[in-house]
Amino acid sequence: MKMLLRTTDPTELAFARALLQGEGIDCFEMDVNMSVLEGSVGIFPRRLMVADHDFEAAATVLSDNGLPVCD
């Protein structure tokens, strides 16, 4: 799996997930439990992961919609 997006903004994550699901690209959100432990202050970023073979297509979808993509 490759990291596609890393952010503390929950709306960015929701938007990215919706875009990827619309394109049929599976994704997995990591570090959800860490953000719960810190009390929803938003200090710890969450990561959105995709399979290696989906990374290029997913990166294109996010960048076409104005979201940052991790290298």
UniProtKB/TrEMBL annotation:
<dbReference type="InterPro" id="IPR011322">
    <property type="entry name" value="N-reg_PII-like_a/b"/>
</dbReference>
<dbReference type="InterPro" id="IPR018551">
    <property type="entry name" value="DUF2007"/>
</dbReference>
<protein>
    <submittedName>
        <fullName>DUF2007 domain-containing protein</fullName>
    </submittedName>
</protein>
<dbReference type="Pfam" id="PF09413">
    <property type="entry name" value="DUF2007"/>
</dbReference>
<feature type="domain" description="DUF2007">
    <location>
        <begin position="1"/>
        <end position="64"/>
    </location>
</feature>
